Amino acid sequence: MVPLLARSLPEVELRGCPRCLALVPGLAAASEADWDAEYGAPVLALRIVDDLDAALAHIRAHGSGHTEAIVTEDPEAAGRFLREVDAAGVYHNASTRFADGYRYGFGAEVGISTSRIHARGPVGIEGLVTVKYLLRGTGQVVADYAGPGARPFRHEDLPR
Questions:
Q1: How many Cα atoms are found within 13 Å in the side-chain-facing hemisphere of 33?
Q2: N or C: which end of the chain has fewer CB within 10 A?
């Protein structure tokens, strides 16, 4: 899958773990800092893990706490992922681009928080509740934004 991804995304700078480097000659090596980076550019750091336990451990160590996703046809793996990942949005077979204030129906975002506790000062019962959104899909992607300056998303099916 990694060679297919590399061929399909020539405009994206891919950085990979040693196992990825063995699959795609010329791929840039990922550093430890890449696992925690949030890029403001088309950069993607890839890491191959042995199993779901290793994937969950990687997310615990390096996840954003905002949105995490799994793509799998295994319902048991998906269920475990949805239960165990600690993030505001946890998705199965759906685009993480659904994690947007407009997509959730909240209107314009005023900020993004990945902290676990958000209230400060006098707090009512509503301030003591946090929310975890679970989204199960079958490959859904979000529609392109519209309006001035909107850029289209690139959605395309890759051969299996």
A1: 1
A2: C
* DSSP code, position 65: S
The SS3 call for residue 75 is helix
The rounded distance, in Å, linking the Cα atoms of 154 and 121 is: 44
pTM, two decimal places: 0.79
SS3 70: strand
Separation CA 16–CA 134 (nearest Å) = 29
Per-residue pLDDT of the chain (160 residues; tens, 9 = 90+): 899 989 998 999 999 999 999 999 999 999 999 999 988 899 999 999 999 999 999 999 999 888 999 999 999 999 999 999 999 899 999 988 888 767 777 766 666 666 666 656 666 777 667 778 888 988 888 877 777 877 777 767 767 6
Total number of residues shown for the chain: 160
Locate the DSSP E strands across the chain: 13-16, 28-29, 43-46, 67-70, 89-94, 133-140
Q: Match 């990942």 to its residue by tokens.
A: 85
Residue corresponding to tokens 């959730």: 104
Report whether 35 contacts 47 (CB < 8 A): yes
